[in-house]
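Q: Hi! Curious about what assimilatory sulfite reductase (ferredoxin) looks like structurally. Here's the sequence.
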Amino acid sequence: MEELVVIGNGMVGHRLVEALRDRDTAHHWHITVVGEEPRTAYDRVALSTYLDGASAQDLSLGDLRGPGVDVHVCEQATAIDRAARTVTTASGRVLPYDRLVLATGSTPFVPPIPGHDLPGCHVYRTIEDLDGLTADAENAKTGVVIGGGLLGLEAANALRLLGVSAHVVELAPHLMPAQIDQGAGALLQNLVTDLGVNVHTGTASTAVQAGPDGRAARLALADGNHLDADMVVFSVGIRPRDDLARDAGLTVGERGGIVIDDTCTTSDAHIHAIGEAAHHRGTVYGLIAPGNAMAEVLADRLVGGAATFTGADTSTKLKLLGVDVASFGDAHGRAPGALDVVVNDAASGRYAKLVLSDDATTLLGGILVGDASAYATLRPLVGSPLPGDPLALITPDGEGLSTDALPDSAQICSCNAVTKGEVSEAISCGAHDVAELKSCTRAGTTCGSCVPMLKQILTQAGITQSKALCEHFTQSRTELLEIIRATGTTTFSALIDAHGTGHGCDICKPAVASILASLGGGHILDGETATLQDTNDRYLANLQRNGTYSVVPRIPGGEITPDKLIVIGEVARDFDLYTKITGGQRIDLFGARLEQLPAIWTRLVEAGFESGHAYGKSLRTVKSCVGTTWCRYGVQDSVGLAIRLEERYRGLRSPHKLKSAVSGCARECAEARGKDFGIIATETGWNLYVGGNGGFTPRHAQLLAGDLDEDTLIRYIDRFLMFYIRTADRLQRTAPWIEAMEGGLDHLREVVVNDSLGIAQELEEAMAQHVDSYTDEWAAVLNDPDKLARFESFTNAPTTPDPTISFTTTRDQPVPGAPTPLGMPTPRTSKESTR
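A: Let's find out. The predicted structure is below.
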C-alpha cells in the first residue's frame, strides 16, 4: 500500500478520506490524517448550533478510523521534508508519504489594532473558541462583533444566544458586502435590527480599550464614537493556512493560498492542496461546496481517474438570525451591460434581484433576502435562457418556476455538485423516493435545501408516493383523522365498512385506535377499541422480555415527596419488583405479572400516583432541571413549568410518543434540545424548540419562537401538538414530520405562531377539550369490574401465577430467568444469585 498523509482534519479533509475510501476498492492507499484540534472532524458550517444547544458529538462528522485509516488528533504538523517525503509533527512523529494533501483550511484574520489581544477578545472559528465565548459571556452585558459578513452575523447571533447584547461594526456601507448589494444590505440591516442586534456600518474600528481590570471594556471607532464592549469578537475575514507550504518552498499566491492546478496538485507533483488553503486560478474559496468538489476530484485522481476542478459555484443560501439570505451567480452585476430586475418590498421584509444579460434573455445571477424560496430553482438557471418573464419569477404572486424548466446540466445540489441529469438518471435506475435519491447521488445530504427540488423531480417523473395507511385503507393517517372528525365515526368497524376493505391488520387497527383516542373517544379499553390496541396499551403497562410487565407512575417534572418515594419502595418490595430510575426522571418497576397489575395500581393510586403512560403513543415525561428553586445559574422556574406542562398534556394520544423537557438556563441541564418540544429559559421568558428526537436517528430540536411569556408559550405548544396529531403520519415522530413538511420549520412557524391557516383557535379548543376530559386510565380500570376481568393469566384460576415466568437475582434485584416449560414447577430462585 502507498502512504497518503492528509494534514488537516476539517470538513474538506474528512470529505477527501470518505471519498477516497469509497473509491479505493483495491486498497491501494493507507491514509494517515493529522489534525491539531482535540477531536475528529465536525460540521463547522453548523458551528453556531453549539451555542444553541447542540453538543460537540452532535456536530461530529464521524470518526473515520478503521482498517487503512489512522487519525491523529491534537497533533500539529510542523515541517514537510519534500526530498525525504516526510511530515514531522510537534510531538516528534515522522510520517512518510507517497502523496501529501494539505487540507489545512484557514485562520481568522485579526486586524492589528491596539488592544486586539486583550482578555475578552475572541475569534469565531472552532468549538474551543465558542467555549471561550461562553465562559466570558457569564459576566458580560454587551459584546461587539467587528465584521458584518456571514461569520460576523453568526457571531452576533451567538452573543444573543448567550444573553449578551450584541453590536455589529462593518467597514463597508452595508452588511454582507461580499454576497449582497446595498439595497439588500439595507433591508437585512432593518431585519437584523428588529431582532435586537445593533448595526453600525460605514465605520472602522480603531482600538480595543481596556477597563480597570485589564480586560476589554470598549471599542473606539474611526468616527470618534465608541461602544461599550465586555467582549469583542473579530470576524473580518479569513487567511489561508499556507505556512507549511511556504516553509517547504511550494508556490503560493500573491495574497496567500497554496497554488494548485486543475488536478488539485501543487508545484510539487507529490503534494496536493484542497479547501480554504488552496489557491486555484486566482481564487481562494471560503465555502464548503468548492472544498468538497476539490476533495472529490482529488479522490478520483488518486485512484487513477481523470476528474478536474475548473472552478466552483459560490452561490449560497443562508439563514442569519432567522433571516433568509441568498446570492448566486453574478450577484453584483459585474458583467458588461448587465441589467437588473429588482423587487424591494421593505414593508413585508423582502428583497429580490435578478441580474440579466444585456439582451435580457440570460440569467446571470441574483440576490434574495427575507424570502429565499425561489433560490432552489433560480440558481441552477444561471447561464441559461430565462424560461419566462423575470419579474414573474421573483414577485410573491408570480408564476414561479418548476424544476421541469431546468436543463439536465443544472446543478440541483451545490454542496455535492449533483445535476438534474444525475438525479433523473438515478430515478430511471429505480430510486423512487427522496431517501433513495440521497443514497444514490448524495443530493440533499449536506444542507438539505435541495430536498424540495428532489420531490419536484420525482413528481415530474410520474412517481407519486403512496399515502395509503395499509392495504385496507387507501387514505393516509391524516385523511382518516379528518374523515373520523367530519363523520363522527367512533368505531373501527364503522370506519372500515365505510372507507376501507377487509377486516384490518396490525398496522391500521392500532393507528385508528390512536386516532379515536386522540379525538377523545373515551377510555382506551372501552368497547371495540380495547381489541385494537397494541399489547402495551391493552394492559396499560409495558410488556417485558419474560412475559411480565413494567409499571411507571407519573412523576411530573421529576419532583416527588419523600412519602411518595416510600410508597414506591414499599410496592416494589412487597411485589418483589426490579426498580430502575429512568432517563426521564421517573421510577420504573419491572417484573409485575399480569394479575398483579391491579393490586399494584391500587397501592399507587391511593398514594396519589397516576399512570405515566410509558406504554402509550402519548406524552411520556417533561424532564426538568432544578431551575431558580435551587440553582445559582437558573433564570426561570423550570420545575414549576415542567409540572404545569406535564399535567396539561398527560394522556394526550399522538402518532408517536412525545417527550419534553424544561431547562432553567442556557446551560441546558434538562437536555431540552433532544426532545419533541423543549423549553429553555431566558432572562425575559422562554425559548420554544421543536422536533428533537432520540432513537435510531437522533435530531436536535430547532427554535420555533423565543422570549415567550408562559401563557403564550403554552398557547404555541397547544397549537404545535394538535397540529402534529392531526397531520403527522402513522408512527411518525416530530422530527421527520417537520422535515417532510413542505416549507419545513418555516411553514410550521407560520402555522403555529402567525396562524397562517386560520386554525389556531380550533387547535387551542381541541387541546382545552383534552385537558378538561382527562381521567387517569389506571384509576378508571380499578373502578370498572369489566375492565378488571381482563387482568387474569388464567380465566379459570384468576390468582394462579403464570408458571412459565421465572426470576433470578442480580445486584440484589429480581431479573428475568430462563423461561420454564409448561407443566414443570417454577424454580424457587428469588434468593439465588447469578454471581
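A: A fun detail: The CA atoms of residues 121 and 710 lie 36 Å apart.
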